[in-house]
Amino acid sequence: MLAASASLLNVNVVILDVGDSAPAKQIIAPRNQDLAHIDGSFADPAKIRELASKVDVLTVEIEHVDVNVLKEIESDSEANVVIHPSPSTVQVIQDKFVQKKHLRAEGCPVSEFIEIESTVGSIQATANRLGLPFMLKSRTLAYDGRGNFVVRSIDQADEALKALGNRPLYAEKWVPFSKEIAVMVVRTTSGEVVSYPAVETIHKDNICHLVFAPLRSRDPLVASRAQSVAESAVKTLRGAGVFGVEMFLMDDGSIYINEIAPRPHNSGHYTIEACETSQYENHLRAILSLPLGSTALKVPSAAMLNIIGASSSMDSINAFVSTALSIPGCSIHLYGKSECRKGRKMGHVTLTGDSDASVRSRLRPLLEALPSGTP
Ligand code: ATP
Ligand code: MG
Ligand code: MG
Asked: Where is the ATP-grasp domain (predicted)?
């Protein structure tokens, strides 16, 4: 989606990812040999250096990259490459425990969390301190809830350690939120921030399932408060680009930050059809020091539904897509991933409308057509 936006601005893009037909590489064909995409891992220092040698501006679409190499490239004046967001920001964010400590130190609202050792004893001590249930989280390499384990009883300590493997862990107190919300924030190279409207995000099995824009709430000030919490948090980070700020909204109207993604984010996919400028275009504008586009909604209501694989078969995805094709005004985005897997994001659809009712009535058949959970 970033590559698609770049092509409309005549911005050449070189992509580093594994395989010749990685999803982003299907979008932009190299203009010449110098701009050929790179086959390799975004965690491979040599490949990251190769990418840096080909570009003027380097950005990331995933935080699990080799950040030490990015730091070396950033400080190498001969490399002459600008990196956004700053590698130091990616470093803070890629360790969720360090990220939480950073936010707390900067005065951003976060709920209680503590350091934990990967032992049964430490998990049991955490249950005494935080109460049950609590959320055990992997500090690193987490996405789509793969790295989270809800500890409901102290008997689960062994199971939790097995599930999260040998990764470094920390624990969060359970947050009994009334809603999950998110705000996409754009930060310019000169440090100004602007935000998109607040949205409601609905997760299923720890994976973002649905997004409704804009956020509806009894208290009309909640949405602007969420924007200001998100903007303040992003102001504490260095470098330009789009940031996805995930938050918990409590019954009493208070807001906690769950986590920040230093990149375009699925809670901002709706911006492609529903806002004046998409999160992708604004990410590019921000990292290229171009004027930002308006973040305003251009429709009264929108919904985004992720298409998540139910098994290794594409059949249920194809069946869903044939329903989506029959829904008026349904925008389909399939990601061109070569294999389907249970729990894998294979694409998304967006609906926009003149009212929530118009969006919800067309959403219903899409929800019914979703790939079922049966393998
Ligand atoms: P992402 O794909 O967004 O990066 P992730 O793997 O980093 O996900 P989190 O965002 O930490 O995981 O958690 C996933 C979901 O689990 C949250 O959106 C929320 O629904 C739930 N969750 C996370 N932390 C807590 C908590 N402390 N209390 C209650 N629910 C939580
Ligand atoms: Mg995350
Ligand atoms: Mg998350």
From this structure: 100-288
